[in-house]
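User: Predict the structure for this protein chain, please.
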Amino acid sequence: MTDASTASASTPAIVPGRLRNFVEMTIQTRQAQRLVQGRRAVDGKPPIIGLYRYGAMVRTIWAGAARDDPYADWYLLKVEQALTESKDEIATLKQTIEANMARSPAMKVGLAHSLEPANIELTFSNPYGYMGAWLLSDMDELVLAALTARHVGLMNRDESERMLGEAGRAIRRAFATAQGYRATAVKREDMRQGTRRAERARQAMGELPQAVLDGDLRPEHAPAIEGVQPSHNTAGHSVASYDDATTDEVTDTDATTDEHGDDDES
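Assistant: Here is the predicted structure, written as structure tokens:
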């Protein structure tokens, strides 16, 4: 009989491979679909940052945050706040419509739905890409509710168009928050030492709140910093109280095209 310890030693270790997940978003309205693709600057119209382009921008910021770039942390904090504010705004609009639909218990109104919805596979490499997709999904549901309410006479065209306009602006505002970040390879140690790299980053993106610079304030979903053991942080705090410490941001001059958000999931 083979000794158990000998057999164990001769058996190759089973090592799990990389993890992958599958996320698919269903889009039912043209309004939401347009904000997936975005728009180039054409015929004097400004570009619209869609989900794909937004995903590409937060991927770059996420990579910077993992390399101890304090500016990347600062931008992720601002993105988090913008996403939360836009989500709350869209939720409030939707609640207004739902309250109108529920005002008579004798009437049951089913939401409109697309006979041919678009299914989009999402493979972002960080939570912020998916958070943008969740926000866009909320807007898609709002559009369905608004169009249904208008169809059954609970809302007039002007009111529904106003709500949809507000929701669209909320999405665009949140996605645009990722603009302005520059991948300068600066690290917190550069900022402490006052290196040329730190000065270039400061000239491009302004001053930082001290709590962000020290690493005491990090985004709620911040990546672990490469080569650093995780420690306590104040993730999840609002950035509103730190806004006075910033200067005007540099506009992202490369936000005129939209890309698919198909990063590799690790």
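The longest strand covers residues 23-27.
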